[in-house]
Amino acid sequence: MTQIPIIDLSLIHNKDINSKQKIGKQIYQACHEIGFIYIKKYNLSSTLIDQVFDYSKYLFDLPLDVKQNMAWSDEFSNQGYVGIERERLNPNNPGDLKEAFNVVGLDNLPTSLFISPAIPIFYQACSEVANIILTAFSLALELPEDFFTINHNQKNHTLRLLHYPALQQQPKPGQIRAGEHSDYGSITLLFQDDMVGLEVQTATKEWIAVPKIADTILVNTGDLMQRWTNDVFRSTKHRVMIPNDEKVKFSRYSIAFFCHPNQDTEIACLESCKTDKHPIYSPITAGEYLLNRLQATY
Ligand SMILES: O=C(O)CCC(=O)C(=O)O
Ligand SMILES: [Fe+2]
Predict the structure, then answer these.
(1) Which residue is closest in CA terms to ligand 1's atom 1?
(2) 190 touches ligand 1 (CB under 6 Å)
(3) 183 Cβ closer than 6 Å to some ligand 1 atom
(4) Do the domain assignments include residue 1?
(5) Is the beta carbon of 100 within 6 A of some atom in ligand 1?
(6) Closest ligand 1 atom to the C-alpha of 258?
(7) pLDDT, tens only, 79-94
(8) Which residue positions does the secretion signal occupy (predicted)?
(9) 133 C-alpha vs ligand 2 centroid, how far in Å?
């Protein structure tokens, strides 16, 4: 597979078993071969998505000292503002030309700042869409339908607003907007604007552009899902390049919703993924795994 497929999520609500099997098969093939899917017909209003993009613009436009007052402090809370060049998604390259704002859970939102009411509503809506996608993942892997949703019911997800500013100066050698990486969690939901730059590495190591497609969201499988499935599902490398045209003069915004299983969920090779080979990875709790990965990137 050299292209990212578009999958109709509404199939899952059909009562007939064939539709359900169809979506399971589509998910399996997409996750096995490319690890990225465009999802259409999900239940999330475009007005709400626009409100979050508007809020994101407001937030990143604030003076730097205001943003720094909400700075990300440690991997245990993983909350707050991450300045330009602070994070290296590819540790071999200079810092990423992006700034980000992390919201983890809904219980401890920063009080120092006006939080748009759209944020908790969007967080909740993304959790619900993620649950439907995770149900389709269960079907794909011949698990009980609620297997993944039960293991995500503590909502340890991270909502991340991202801003890639217009290029101000010549980048350092190897410096891009987001270094090549794979995501850490189970699945990620990604909302892009019209500014290009996102690229995904196919199984044959080719980088392909992943533009926004209207009325779809992009979903990718992360490292924990790869581990859980014994490499049956791929956690695919991706990156955000600096545009080589006029678009470099403009900001790019995106919104990522990183889904994480419950802290104490043990990630051990699933039964249906043991068929071809023995378990590759030793069991680990989702909480411990995430902490290890965050410690390595900051
Ligand atoms: O901004 C994007 O399109 C991708 C961001 C991303 O891959 C990440 O933050 O993990
Ligand atoms: Fe990513």
Answers:
(1) 254
(2) yes
(3) yes
(4) no
(5) no
(6) 10
(7) 789 889 888 888 888 9
(8) none
(9) 18
- Give the C-alpha separation, 292 to 283, whole Å: 14
- What CATH number has the domain bearing residue 192? 2.60.120.330
Q: Confirm or reject: Cβ of 178 under 6 Å from ligand 1.
A: yes
> Considering the chain, what percentage of its residues have pLDDT values greater than 90?
70
Give the pLDDT confidence of 31-47 residue by residue, as tens digits.
999 999 999 999 899 99
Model pTM?
0.95
107 located within any domain = yes
- What is the complex's ipTM, to 2 decimals? 0.99
Domain that holds residue 215: 6-297
Cα(15) to centroid(ligand 2), Å? 34
Domains identified in the chain, total number? 1
| Choice from 158, 161, 190 to test ligand 1 binding pocket (greatest atom count within 8 A of CB) | 190
